[in-house]
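ZP: hey, is the zinc ion complex queued? I don't see it on the tracker
AM: it wasn't, my bad. submitting now with these inputs:
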Amino acid sequence: MTLPPLVAPAPELTVDEIRRYSRHLIIPDVGVEGQKRLKNAKVLCVGAGGLGSPALMYLAAAGVGTLGVIDFDVVDESNLQRQVIHGQDDIGRPKVESARDAVARINPYVNFRVHNTSLTRDNVMEIFADYDLIVDGTDNFATRYMVNDACVLLGKPYVWGSIYRFDGQASVFWAEHGPCYRCLYPEPPPPGMVPSCAEGGVLGVLCASIGSIQVTEAIKLITGIGEPLVGRVMIYDALEMTYRSIKVRKDPACPLCGENPTITELIDYEEFCGVISDEAAEAARDSTITATELKEWMDTGKDFLLVDVREPAEYEIVRIPGSVLIPKGEILSGEALSRLPQDRQIVLHCKSGARSAEALAALKAAGFRDAVHVQGGVLAWVNQVDPSLPTY
Ligand code: ZN
């Protein structure tokens, strides 16, 4: 599938620009016309980290006229192994400022826009609206789904990339012409199940491999050349040194871009992805049971106290038999600790497993060493054990 150019050409290139971009201009498929499209293009990089670093540098060098970056973080020493847009002297500086200086050194003709903030449900639509194309270099699922949803709702294409250890993936999601990220991954993984690069590590140079695919796709979309990665996911294995692409179809039942969309505005992505703190993920690592295991514990008469850490209104809607309600806040404040038995194992659950993981971290810190929580919460209980109960 070929697609028309995303961006109209700028009126002209200056003499300096013709000199600078001459190696592009003599490629027939790019030419002066393609370079003028790059000059007129507005591209936003979400994140100035592992993928954002090579993406920003090559987008700037390629002559993308307006380049934006959004990041709220500061440069840490542990970033430098892969985030090559930052240097030793930048440690402690906002990443967007470090990136701005690096881009200015690479190409002074780039109009660089800095968004020194975190991307949220309240600002994402307004920020994205100003750009033709988004390059997603985020490392967490909540932001990833938010980027996808905002792009679909705004009708914009975006280039997605993901890295872990020796493996990387990239694709172009553009609901008008192919699937979106939700068509590929309808549900986020359970919180704490997929380790981040901070937990599992990443080979630094992998960022260059995937970041360069993202920039290549951005240039192809802007200038309308080649076969874009729409409807395909590129999978790179650095150890095997293989690239393979798999076809991904638009899901007619996709709640966002399918035939009968049920998602028509942005949602609460932290809630959707069950985002939990590092402490909660650590506490849950070896202390998580499934809803099916909980049922087995009940059936075999195991002695434990099942504590529901949701709010009273939720407890009214649906509850697991035998559970007692102690809202998470009372556990985190320490207020409820004296009411908990020291001589019985405690099993925590909530709606989806995020709040119970936070409460679990607090209980472990208070000395309840054998406490566990239920993965997926009451929703998993309904799904796996008792589908006759309501969900919400
Ligand atoms: Zn979709």
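AM: back. DSSP finds 17 helices and 13 strands in the chain.
ZP: great, adding it to the tracker
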